[in-house]
Design brief:
The structure is a single chain. It contains 15 helices and 8 strands. It is 50% helix and 15% strand. It is globular. The chain has 2 domains: 42 residues, no CATH class; 250 residues, 2-enoyl-CoA Hydratase, Chain A, domain 1 (Alpha-Beta Complex). Strands 1, 2, 3, 4, 5, 6, 7 and 8 form an 8-stranded mixed beta sheet that branches.
Length: 327
């Protein structure tokens, strides 16, 4: 059981704590309470299914932000073999929020790029809270060009609230670095599989987010802005974040329906933090399916299909068409 509970699952957390206390009491007193424990565990499972079958967008955001949720390197350690990290952008610095490296995904040799958040204060400072500087995106592009040269498919793992918004990022042209990545990734002549594993925020996410296949973890969230940021702009009140989360349509279910993503990667009931190994296995299998589907395509066909994929996103309905769609 994960340590930190969320407000909307308070009743479930209290029941799980009661089960743990009963188990400890039985062990100390050396008595058999297996029947009582089984009944409570069945009740907890039913309650968990009920809670997670009717989540709001804001509740999905809370799961996505759980402090014990697996990050990019957690998944790398689970299923990427012989991982060899590459450092630096050859211009300014090595951005530790952006990880790049060669590895093995079973029979597939891959290049992996990903944005890494920290687990504690020290690591968050080192990783800049998962917010990349311009050199992070330039490192990623340098690495992806290497993958193209060696004809290696690219796997991209997204987990960021956005690119770093500070003055130094502007001084070193973070917008240009992200825009350059969008342009270059659209033309790379190797397969690209993108997976949103947690938070997919703003341009910081799309800076490594152009691909042939777009996967998204079940309780991830992918949006142009955070719910709090959206609420502050639209209603001048960050407390309206819950309303903004619904309006932004950033959950995996919403984005699958809109055609922005291609597949939802299921998570263990309650979120990836409850069983990181099971979540990693699900992600691994989804990545392998995507790579296998793309491996027979020629470079020309890959680029053409990628272009068509992004051109087809988004619809504008006006006048009678809009009324017909609404009614």
């Amino acid at each position: 059981m994960a340590g930190a509970g969320m407000e909307f699952e308070k009743s479930l957390t209290e029941l799980e704590q009661k089960i743990e206390e009963l188990k400890k009491f039985a062990q100390v007193e050396n008595i058999d309470v297996s029947n009582e424990v089984s009944k409570l565990e069945r009740k907890a499972e039913e309650l968990r299914k009920d809670i997670f079958s009717r989540l709001s967008a804001w509740q999905v955001v809370q799961i996505m932000r759980h402090p014990e949720r697996p990050h990019a390197l957690d998944y790398v350690s689970e299923f990427v073999g012989q991982f060899l990290e590459v450092h630096g952008d050859r211009h300014f610095a090595d951005d530790k929020a952006m990880i790049c490296g060669f590895g093995q995904l079973d029979e597939h040799r891959i290049g992996l790029v990903g944005i890494q958040k920290g687990r504690d204060t020290k690591e968050n400072l080192m990783r800049n809270f998962g917010m990349c500087q311009p050199e992070g995106y330039r490192k990623a592009l340098r690495f992806m060009k290497m993958c193209e040269k060696f004809r290696l498919p690219i796997v991209s793992l997204i987990d960021t609230s956005g690119a770093y918004p500070g003055l130094e990022g502007e001084e070193r042209s973070v917008a240009e670095a992200i825009a350059r990545n969008l342009f270059e990734m659209s033309h790379l002549r190797v397969p690209i599989v993108v997976a949103v594993i947690g938070e997919g925020g703003s341009g910081g996410a799309v800076g490594i987010g152009v691909g042939d296949r777009m996967l998204m973890m079940e309780y991830a969230y992918y949006s142009v802005i955070s719910p709090e940021g959206c609420a502050a702009i639209l209603w001048k009140d960050r407390a309206k974040a819950e309303r903004a989360a619904e309006a932004l349509k950033g959950t995996a279910k919403d984005l699958l329906a809109l055609g922005v993503i291609d597949e939802i990667v299921p998570e263990p009931l309650g979120g990836a933090h409850r069983d990181p190994k099971a979540a990693a296995l699900n992600l691994k299998m989804a990545l392998k399916r995507s790579l296998q589907a793309l491996e027979g395509m020629s470079p020309e066909r890959l680029v053409e299909a990628r272009y068509s994929k992004y051109r087809s996103m988004g619809r504008v309905l006006e006048g009678l068409a809009q009324e017909a769609a609404a009614g």
